[in-house]
Amino acid sequence: MRIAGFGTALPQHSIAQSEAATISKAFARLEEGQERLFEALYRRSGVERRYSVILERSEGPLAARQNFYGDQAPTTAQRMRKYESEATKLAVASSTLALEQARTDARDVTHLVTISCSGFHAPGFDIALAKQLPLRGDIARTHIGFMGCQGALNGLRVAQAFTAADPNACVLVCATELCSLHHQYGWEPEAIVANALFADGSAAIIGFADSSETRDIHLPKLIATGSILVPDSEDAMSWRIGDHGFMMTLSSRVPSLIAQNLRPWLDQWLAKYEHSVASIGSWAIHPGGPRILSAFGETVEIAPSALKTSYDVLAQHGNMSSPTVVFIMDRLHQANAPRPWVAMAFGPGLTVEVALII
Known about the structure:
The chain is an alpha/beta fold and 358 residues long. The protein has helices at 17-28, 35-43, 76-102, 125-132, 151-165, 189-197, 254-271, 290-300, 308-317, 324-334; strands at 2-9, 14-16, 49-51, 111-116, 140-145, 170-178, 200-208, 222-229, 237-242, 245-250, 282-285, 341-347, 351-357.
């Protein structure tokens, strides 16, 4: 599948990480001796600025930046109503940019693949996309839900299957997440880490069946996807629905699990396509956090500079869950980064999803 266009979108307002920590501290209900650790968790996140749909302004007194979170934690129903009102705006914005870059009319899209793990409603933002872009009435829709940060790569696998089955297929893949709707109150280190990392964003891709007669042969080409379930890792990462939003579990074991299990499998998987770690030109690794990036770099034995784009996206936008890896791929594309690319993300399971793009 040739990737003909990328599009990314962010909420209107953003906040510096130090300011987000100050606001969040009021909801953490810290006891004596906990403040230093709380501040350290925010500092060590690798995030400098994040965008959020709950923000009403980017400047001015912190107390006036948002009113979604207050003395009482919003219920899951209240958070989902916010998701329903805001997700479509970002999805339409990123998809419109992807269509423009691909020089493709929305009516030419035959398949729509949407991805999200941070909200649910029906009819969903896939229906809203179809109406607002607008897409054709007989568009084939597929939604990938609750797959976590790796969801966009699951979406690319589905898109590749559609283009392989139909040489005339044109697929729009759109990953949209509003993670800031799931801020957790109280003192729980794993929840504080999630609060410090996650942000909002949307990213889209336009894919066509590979055909030198109809598509630019110089466009990035998705040639394979792969997946591995790490043994005995179910407790390492989870995403569960609670009464006050979705609750993230992100164990400190994740970096060590990556270090112990990833390299042998990755070597074997790349070899199937006549590649190796040494032959990869650029890496689009989902920045689940700085420790995950460093663990990946160490086990694969690549320099930190090879992951600069991942670190930059984390610093400038935070962890947006599923769209994040597409933000990284978009930057690689804009920079004409050397190919092949390997895109990789991690999700509950613990699972690893990977894509090879030449």
